[in-house]
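Dear all,

This email documents one entry for the complex benchmark we are building for the journal club exercise. For each entry we list the sequence lines for every component of the assembly. Then comes the predicted three-dimensional structure of the complex as a token string, followed by one or two observations. Please use this as the template for your own entries, and keep the labels exactly as they appear.
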Amino acid sequence: MNERSLDVAGRSERPMEAVKDDFPILQRRVNGKRLVYLDSASSSQKPRSVLAAMDDHYRTYYANIHRGVYTIAEESTAAYELARAKVARFIGAASANEVVFTKNITEAINLFAHSWGRTNLHEGDAVVVTEMEHHANIVPWHILAAERGIELRWIPIDADYRLDLGELDRLLDGAKLFAFTAMSNVLGTVNDVRALADAGHAAGATVLVDAAQAVPHSAVSMRDWDADFVGFTGHKMLGPSGIGGFWARPELLEAMPPFLGGGEMILDVRKDGYLPNDVPWKFEAGTMPIAEATGLGAAVDYLEALGMDAVHDYEQRLTGYALDALTERFGDRINVHGPAGTDMRGGIISFGFEGIHAHDISQVLDEDAVCVRASHHCAKPLMRVLGVPANTRASFYVYNDEADVDALVESLVKAEKFFAV
Amino acid sequence: MPALEDLYREIILDHYRAPRNRGELPVPPAHKVEGYNPLCGDEVVLYLEVDGDTVTDLKIAGQGCSISQASTSMMSGAVKGLPVADARRLIRAFKALMSIHESKLEGDADGDDLRDELEGVRLGDLEALQGVVKFPVRIKCATLAWNTLQQGLDEVETE
């Protein structure tokens, strides 16, 4: 197999502003305007190196993994497992065998709910979540609640859109599972994972972290976080859609029963039963997204070449610039649903605009090729707490710059004029 | 790309800024029905008063984008006081208006049936919403109120 697809030589010496050139889609014009992509919290765009790595896999050594003894099958298998090792290193796991691939984080959390949840949660058991969770970390527990009568407890948010931990001990008391996000996909709020994990463990709970938004934007370490299960997804971190996964403690992985049954997840199958495969393959039934794993590995290489601390610092500066620009231009007419300042906050800015619905804003912005999301962002319980049916969300990544923020502001001025009361 | 002015006609913005028939009616005798667009969180609440075979009164509540709220407001004005049969006819005509563009694009023979639905129905101000069909993702915003009305009339009938 071949690893030639990455051209990262000298990348660290390139200014972050030059990153935009690595993303072919950002050269596109929509409605005659330069594409301004501000929806990376939903899904990120892909650099040339990721596209090339997948293309190379399909063109030169694609075959199904793990069983073939012919050359390209071995190359394909090696590439898939190399991607696992890259992801493991990237998230600070102790071993590649602690990383399981799924199609996305929604599948990862559902796998955990199905496997660990159905083994360990029984009637009357409590699961603690927060008001800022994505539906992917709510509905699997609702399903178990309906099926076996578990109790869902909610950690509220405070006036600065952060977790209100005043009642944390009471809420965690006797809980079996503490499941929370490392970074809100609506508010941008970054939670202190280690402190929350410690509190969960002190109460005897197993700790699950939704790291879909955290892994793409900051240096993370499974060792430092000390949680039990951490989900992530590839398409939000410059990788392709169709691949994501989770990290879990080795002893937890060993104890968890398989989720899907089928090929690859077995050591042996007889008429009277089966023997599950070793971890992590025990959880990877059926043909996996193979070239997508290679693409995710290339995305990890790309991010590591930029340096995750540099990525984080750059996005913080850009977020600060955007928060200042929006409040300077629109004052009280804009209501940012997120923490003030950029401390413990990611590059996600959700806002309400006086007298203009989010849909109408995004419609006007689309005319200027400014891509934002107008939605409940798959966090309806949070939207109910905020008291709005939907809001507008602009989210940033490495390929965004101040010109993108300026385009957003200019287009919002246009929307305001259009809908002027 | 179609111009924003095709979508946001002045009469639509007027209904959005000053929606007609907003409020509630006591239930019963009125019938309350709610409609949701799960994709965007828009919601429409209708209070329907049906006396015999006439929609005698109608109030609207809920929240959403300019298209959904203007469509609801315009619908309330158009339907209030109408015989139920005519209201149902108007629902069909409006939905035909919202789908005729797609049918044309697909060269669909059903386009003729849709035009039949529109034949002889006076849409009045509602025709301002025709520009919505050029923005396919917004069609659901415009039809939400009408689907909710249809559901409400069905529920009243089976009560």
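Observations: Chain B has a mean pLDDT of 84. Chain B has one domain: 4-158.
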